[in-house]
Amino acid sequence: MTTEQRQKTMFIGVDVHKDTHTAVGVSPFGEKLFEITVGNYKKDFENLTEKVELMKGSLSPYFGLEDCHGYGERLAGYLVEAYPVIHVPSIMVDRLRQNATHPEKSDSLDALGVAKVMMQSIDTLPIYTISEESKRAKQIKELSMDREYLVEERTRLKNQAHTLLYRIYNTEYQERFKDPFSLKALRYWSLARPAGDPFLLKAMKRKVRRLVAIHTEVTDLEKDMELMLTEGKYTIQTASGCGLVIASMIIGEIGDIARFHSPGALAKYAGCAPRECSSGKTKRYRKTRSGNRRLNCAFHRMALSQISRMGNDKARVYFKRKMSEGKSKSQALVCLRRQMVNIVWMMLKHKTIYRNA
User: Fold this and answer.
1) Distance of CA 278 to the CA centre of its chain
2) Contact at 8 Å (CB) between 320 and 298?
3) pTM of the entire structure?
């Protein structure tokens, strides 16, 4: 945005909540023009736009929301049809508040902070868009996170069931089945009638019933994920080290690949690009802890799979070459992870199948 365009822009920051949203309009020179609090229904959104149209004069309104995908999704979806909508990370608003002389917090101040961040950094903030690609990616993300929560619950239940089975059967329960939590084993435990404490037996059967239910739910979610990937014509699941689960994590966190103009932009978003930390004649780079940590984790798992025994020969050669250059194993893995970002960006951008050549 040029200086001339900024001088003709009204920056409207919105602090979103579950039931109400507070909007503050600011002139291009930082003057507060209006403040309004509205509900979370269409008629309330119409009141907001009427207020904006009344106050804008010759200025072009730009809306900024801290949350476009949670409590602010309904508002963002309404506004984007008529106005540019910018996603403003809450951490940037928090930094602005912490640097203030009196770092006070309220809905009004938060909305004003969103508007001020837009004024300073509008060229670097992502524009909120609604496309079929982003809608499908959002659905895949919800399926992926549901599966993740169930897997975490299953792990806790297995740990509890291990203790109960040990108290009922001693170490003998480990000898009956190679996997004491396979479906065959779970059915056996649910029908077993060993002598002993009846309360322990009831507790164990409750855990077993829930484990069977989780197995069914996880299977259904994976079928839905596979269907969504097929309907979206995604191809990254064809890459070695990127199965159904990791592919769904990556697609769900990236959303519409059109948001990222290059692999480097995606790498920065995922926290896979090293941060420069140079001074004088010393040039050095450090691993960053910022970025989307869930996406970073998916790329990390993908890179680990690439250098595993069943992985990719070319990836192992690249990994060993980086180590021969003097890098440690973790540094070489970071380099490989960055290469995975390039591959995924190209595959999502051009819908190409992975070729190990």
Assistant:
1) 30
2) no
3) 0.82
